[in-house]
Amino acid sequence: MTEKLTGSSGQVRYITVPVFAPREIELPPLKLSPYSVSTFRVCRQQYKFRYIDKLGDQYATARPYYTMANHVHATLRDLLSVVPIEERTKKTTERLLRKNWQRCRVGFKNRADEKRWAEKALAELSRFVSEQDVAVHPLMLEAWVEAEITPGLILQGRIDRVDKEADGSLHIIDYKTGNVPQHTDWLQLYLYALIVSRKLPYSVHRVSFHYLSSGISQTAELNAEQLEQAAWDLLVIAGEIRREKAYRRTPGQACQRCDFTPICAGKQVACKASVEGDFELWRDCVSRDNALA
User: What architecture (CATH level 2) is domain 30-243?
Assistant: First the structure.
């Protein structure tokens, strides 16, 4: 670019000034999951420790309810995908649970504690076999899925189960091994529906949380407007994550099951309430710990 300069004597000179186009900073793709979105919404410092600082493996704590849930999910997957329909009985389910249980036996206080959690797992699975249609052929089970929602934003996660219904629409089901919460947050399942709708040529019309302990299912109908709203909510949260600098802690109920309390500045005010889902066995363990303190 040529610029005109006028001196004090009125003499005019022309000089060439280099012009640089604004340089675009290329950010790496942001990969989110329904769980990471939930983590950010609950506590931004926990999000930082887990997804930015990558401290999950270093501070991971074995917990009995996670171990139990892992085995229950694996058993349901095997029951509905590997076992012939005529053999999907309580006896077969118990055999599968015992086999899966041997894979991992961590987080328990002692053998008696482990037995109690195993009995709880078996009771939940037995209820499922007695009350649910075990002759189904799910379209997806324990499936890892991901989709690009917008350029630079990828949504991914593992879905417990997807059924294809008679009208050709899809029904996403998420198993819960805890009790029914007072307030249901549907965003998790809406985000799963968002991924599936981008990956498969079918519409997701229903999403459900199935609580294995009580046999209760909470189901929500899903339409295009709700799916668009979920996509918008995701974009808003993704924008907040991109702009976040402070990552402040948010003490609350989630502190009870957070792996990062040893390095959290707010650990002295961490809530001592029961964990999400209000697991009876875990509440009993916490009560015993408090009595011994």
Answer: Alpha-Beta Complex (3.90)
